[in-house]
Structures are given as structure tokens and as C-alpha cells.
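WARN retry 2 of 3 for item q-0093 after timeout on previous attempt; input resubmitted unchanged.
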Amino acid sequence: MSEKSENLRSLKVESVLPVKTVGIECLKESNPEKMSPHRYLFKWFARRPTAATRLAVLASVLPEKISNDTLLELMQIGPDRPEQVDGSISDYVIKRWATKDSRDGRVSDHFGYPIPHSQSPTIDEMDALHSELRDCWDGELPTVLDPTAGGGTIPLESLRYGLPTVANELNPVAWLLNKVILDHAKNVGSIEKEISEWSNQMQENASGALTDYYPAATEGQTPNHYLCTYSVKCSSCGYRIPLANRWWFKKKSANEGHAIRPHTHEDRVEYEHVEFPSDVDKSEFNPDKGVVESGDAECLNCGVITERETIKQRLTDREFEYEVCGVQYVESRTGKSGYRGGNQADKEAVERAQEKIESDLDLRTLLAIDRDAGDQSSLRVSDSIAYGMEEWRDIYSPRQLLSHATYLDAFEQVKGQVMGKYPASKAETILTILALSAVKLIERNSKLEPIDIRRGSPANMLGSNNFGFQWAFGESNITVGSYSFESSLNVVLGNYEQLTKHLENVKETPVTVLNGDAANMDLEEGSVDAVVMDPPYGDNVKYADLSDSLYVWIREYLGDIYSDEFRPPLTDKTNEAIENPSRVQNNNNSNLSKDELARQKYEIKMSDIFSEVYDAMAPAGVLTIYFTEKETSAWDSLTMSLINSGFAVTATHTITSEMPQRIGVQQVASADSTLLLTCRKPHQSQELEERSPTLWSDIKQDTRRVAQEKANELLDSGLNLTKTDTIISAFGPTLRVFTESYPVVDKYDERVRPREALEEARTAVTKVLVERELSDDLEGVDSLSAWYILSWLVYGRNSIPYDEANQLGLGVGVHIDNIKRDTKIWGKSKDTLLLKGQDYRVQDYTALESGNKRRKRAYPIDPREQAFSHTIDTVHAALNVLETKGSDFAWNWLKERSLQNDSSFKTTIEALLQVLPENNEDYKSLINLASGQTGELLDIDIRSIEETEVSQESRTTLQDFE
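OK item q-0093 returned
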């Protein structure tokens, strides 16, 4: 690499980008059938849409002078026939989007071009791009680095455009995916013919060895999926209790579907398949109700309850048996599916599998690796460990473990032959694809996935990022059917082959795939020009904990081939850049909580990563970061990490891949938006401690101003962002002001963190939203009532992330923790704040008159009072009076308190009518209060309020692209 100019060149990423057009492409790509093949090659836990990735990569290396049309053409966005475009490509795409619902045929025909990720640039386009880039980058092509490559989306798109690419990944599972995508697919190419030969041998060897373990009840019926559970002895009568919490196998509707019905018979339970409603009615047998409820199990024979703790102990002590309750089979003659109850032959097959494992030393020790219970929260690892699943082998039933082990053995039988027949790189590729196809089978064949009753088959163990215990679980016959080795191979190989075609024109492009800590990469100083990364966000995903389930099997298959990467028994948790309170220790005896220590550790780690990136990046280079996290605390940590490593924010762009309607109707939080945060090395680089501090009071108004300007720009842009994403998008320019001025100090000379600037941004954007969407401002409304209104305005639902609700409160002067007990205006469920309505807060007026209470708890509001602490209390009391005593009584109640003359009372009612969802109970009562006699008294014009409400456009769904 030649020496680069130290002058910061103007890049496209720091100018106006076609974000709305790219957002449309992201949404089109969200259809599972339209996703890039690298997404389906093998499981990973976070991948961004290709369109957004292409924008980030290309805009980070192209000069500012490039037009948006040229950029979109390079991204393969725009009609195949340019004469179709009247105006810009963005105008064309947006118009096509607006008319998509009236189209005939496929979405690609309507738009006039294929899904962009299916197209790579032509040789001519590549030559023109490279010529432009060499002019911009001193005669060379810029090198692109992704230090936290994850599933490989960013380096793949960089490579597809012929850019020298470096991908680094700490996690060996993700590293292997990058190795396959960037190295094998490019350098080895198609292996379809070779795979066919060796996969057939594997399948023949494995299926032959497993046939007897999947018995058919009738000739021509091949078992496909199983509904299984555990059984323990009843302490009272000794009868076996099947621990199923429901009996549905496939549920078509509330009263229609296939279920398994247990029958007591002598000393055991027998199982019968029943179809609703033809065989049985729910009044006679309700499959929604199993034997287990709230962890306790009722004996089917004597009715005595065995408590959860007893069951846990018996499962941990292996004092249980496996029960095959139901079987879904396929008729060989017709290909149709059917259902039956489990029988004695099924039970004996599981027992034979158990005997086989116990009699074979290799099987008895396979995956005898302790599961890491470090994450005690979102993964619920500790939950399943408490039920005896202490080693990775324990998450499989005997037949499941045997079936996976049999395919591993079949792989070992062909491994030597493959390595002896082909060059090393080709043999490595063939074996990797075979291994990934076999390992993929664990997703639908373990004790940690329930039955997906919509399909009548096992759910995906990794589908919900959760390793919780399952009372009833699914099992697959992996020798045949929909979740078999053959079907898995078709997915893995099919997507690999597509990737080889995508990379046909870039075989000479240099690519490096590193496995290691992003804070300590083996890169020369100044060796990369553009860094594009999608960093881990705080505690968003526990990558290492989740991937251990895959890692332990890949290590068995490929540990001798990738010996350095798969040497440890489990993945690296120490160097992982996530927040995990269960993995931190307070060695310094500080006053920080484990959550605070985990946040501190994450911030330090990200600072180290950004510092490494800073050193690896050429002086004129650029860092572009994806950011989709909503929590202010995550933004605070990320920004401090950037500041600590020497970067300054120079530009931000918001891409939305969802077009939402008024959120409250849908009961969802926000659009699936991405913020591109662009950073540079300061032109005059100084150590942080050498910079002159800036007073917070000097830039506070600037942070508000740029946030409001960004909010107005977005609200006028037609992007149709949710209000949450509008706030998040305004964080970008706010952080630019803050990072350029850092270090920032308050009047006491104490360092100010980015969090305070973000609070200013949230307050500023909220004010913009109020001005635009409410018929009146909230002047004169007390802080608590204003917070309640703003919470509904911004989120449109009663459940809000606690951190965000707290920040919103601080913006209007409310410390929500201080008012929780006295007002009961909110409750909490884990990290979620729940807004409360009048029914929860106001004592029933009629119950008070009779001397009774509705429930045995305290209510903060007595509707008989003449005055209330907050306007929202008055409104809630009025709603209660109207509901319980009627409109005549309510009219007098309002009149006695002169509420018709209370401007803040009427303003609060009008605001709530504009922000509450129409299906909210308080909304219905407010309509009644603002109508009829009480409405005439209060003089509230509902029609004018309705005119100010946000139009309820239809939310786009995946069905729009079928």
C-alpha cells in the first residue's frame, strides 16, 4: 500500500444519501424468500440487510461528487431499462413503492429489476468503479476492514465489489462462516458434484445404522417428527406422570387441530391421537391444559400434586423416563402427513438408544462438557441446568444424541477418503459443508425446542435465543423428511453454490479472514482505509453463550482441520464485547452494581477495539458504524468508547427497513431502523487529556438545536419513521457536536458524559413531536401528566423500555422511581415499564359508597376528593366517575370542581385523545367524556382533535412481496 495523503478526502458517506430508497430495498429483502444466501448458509444471530450494507460500504469509499443515481446503479437498484426512469432513480423507486399494492405479478416485475443482493456488478461496472476509486485513493483500491464481522454481511459485500477486504471475528463459529463465504466460495468455487458423492455415502451409512430406532406403526408410514416429554413416579400412587404442559401437536385454530390424548391404563399411560373437532370436543378434552401447570404436576391416576422442586430434583438425579407421546408420519404412497399416538415400540426404541449409548465408551463421553451457566438471564441457561442438563450432551434425549453421533461417525468414515483425493483447500471446503449440514440438524432435534404447533413439527432451538427448559419437546427423524440431513444439506450447499456465483468476478481480489480479539488484530498501522462495522450492542445478544451449542459439535467434526480456532472446549467469553453481569466480579470492592460493572467492562472493551481500529486506519480513512440499539445507555457507552479511542462523529444517516403505521394499533415498539454513524480521525490529533475542555453550558443549546433540525428534516422527508426512531436518529448530529467539543465539563469542572447530550436531544425532539402532533402544547400541564402523555405519544403502547421511559421523564422533570409508589401510574416487568390506566389507579366510586373495595390493595386516587395532586389523576378520576355513576352524575362531579374552567384538565384530555390507541379502554371512556352533556360542559371539539391525529397508513408486511 502506497502512502496515503493525510488530508481528509471528501467522501460520499458525509453527504446526502438516498436513505429512503435503500430503506425500501431493505424492506423488500426482509421477505425470507428474498434474503441473501449467506443468511441461510448457517445459523448466526444478527445480520443486516444487504442493501444497507452496500450503502455503508460504497459510500465509505466513493468520493462525495458521485451522484445518488450512480451510487444506486452500483448497488444494482433501478430498472433494467433506464428509459423507464422519469427523474431520479430514487423518485422511480419511491413511486413504484407507492403503487406496489395495485401491481400484477411479482414484485421484481413491478419494480423492473431483481432483488439487488442477487446481482453483482458487471465487469464493466467494476472497472468503472475501480477507476473512480483509484482516482480518489491515490492510485490504489481502498482496503475495507470489518473487525467484528459476525455473519459476514459487510465483508461479503465489500468483496463483491472487488475491494481488498479484511474480516476479523472472535467467535470461531462466525469465523468459520466468514471463512466459507469469503475464502472457500471465492477460491474453491463449486463443489456440488463432489458433495453429492460423499453426502450419499454419509446418508447411506447413517440411515442404515439408525433405521431400527425409528419404528413405523404400519408399513408405509415413515415417522418424521415426535412429541415427547418426561415421566416421573407419583409419590402417592407410584403411577408414571407424563410432564407435558399441553397436548397439542398441530393447532389450526382455537378448536381445530391434532392433539395427543393421554389415557390411564393399568400401570402406565397410553396415548391416542385425536383430531378436533371431528374426534372430540374441547369440552370433553382440552389440549391447552397439560399435566403440568406452573411447574407442578398432577397425577392422572390419583390427582395428587408433585411440586416443581421435587420434579427438578428427580430430573437432576435421572429418576425419570422418556415418553414418546405422539408421532407425525408421512405416507410413502401419497406423501401426506398423518398423526398417531406413541406406542410401546416407540418407547422401546428410545430405550434401545439409551442402552447403546451406555454400552459404548465414545458415546458415553461424547459432549461431556459442562454447560456454562454464566448467563442467568435472557438465555435461561440456568433454568435448564436446574432440571439436570448440566453438560452439553444432556440437552439431547438418548435417541437424539445417538442420531447426531451416528452422522458424526458417518462423516469420520468419509473424511480420510476426501482428504486423500483432493487438494487441501478443496478437501477442507467439502468437509466443512458436510459438517455444517450435519451440525445444523441440532436446531430441530434437541430437548430445548418445543413443538411448533402451527406446523406440527419441532420449533427451532435457536429461533428465540433462549435455552430454557421445555416440559414437552420435539424430536425429528433426521434420516428422512423435512428436518433431515438431506434437507439440511440442500440448504447449506444450495446457498454456498449461490455465493460462488456471486464471487466469480473477484477471484483475484485479496481477502483476509482473521480469528481473534478485535482489540488486538494482527494488522499493520495505517493498512486499512475504510472500516465498516456492526458492533455488538451492550447486552443485546449473548453471541458466545448461544453459539456454544453449535461450537461443541463443529469442534467434534472439524477440530482437527481448524485446530487453532476450535482448540478450547467452549467459545471465548473473556474477550467478548458484550454486557453480561453474570460474568463480572467486583474484585475492587467498589460500590458499583454488577450491571454497572458489566457496562463499564463493555465500554472499556469497545474503547480498546476502536483504538485498535484507529491505529489500523490510514489518517485519511473513515469509520462507519451500524447502530440499531434504542437504549440511551448503550449509546452513551458506544460514544464514550469512540471518544476514548480518538474518533469524532462527522455524519449520520437513518435507514428504515419498515414502514410503520400509528404504533399503538400494532402494539410494536419501533421500526427496524439502522443509523449509520460516520467517524474520522481528527485532522489535528491530540491526546484526550491534552485537549482544552468545553463548558457544557456553551454547547447545550447547540445539541438541542441540531437534534430539532434533524427531527424536522426526518419528519418532512417521508421516511415514515416511528417516533422512537426519530429520536434515535437525532442522536447522531447531537453526538457530532458533543464529540467535536470533548472533553466537556460542567460548572463544577466534572466531566459530562454523552448521556446528558442525548437527554437534551430526546427532550428537543419530543418538543418537536408535541408541536407537530398535538392540537395544543403542554404548557401549564404538570410534569407527571406531561410525562404520561409524552410516553403514549412517543411509544403508542403501555409497555416501554424502562431506560427510555426514565430518560423521557428526566426531560420534563420527573424522576419516575420517586413517583411510582405514591401514584401507581406505572409498574415494571423486568426491564419494561408498564403505563397504568384509570382502572388500576382509581378506587371504584360505587364500591366506596357501599363500603366495599374492588380488590385488596391500595388505590392512590379517591374519586370523591375535591382536588387531586396531578391533572392525570383528575382525568382518571373523572373517567371512573363516568363509568361507574353515569353521565348525569359525572356532569355534576365536573361542575362541582369547576373543571370546565380548568385549561390544563381540558388540554390533558385533548392530548390523551390524540395519543392513546383506539383500542385502549381509557380512550373509549375519554370519547364518552368529551361527548354528550359532559362534552358540552367541557367544550372539547373532538372533530378538530381527529383532524390532527396521525394518518393510519397500512403497515407493510412480508405478504406484500409474495
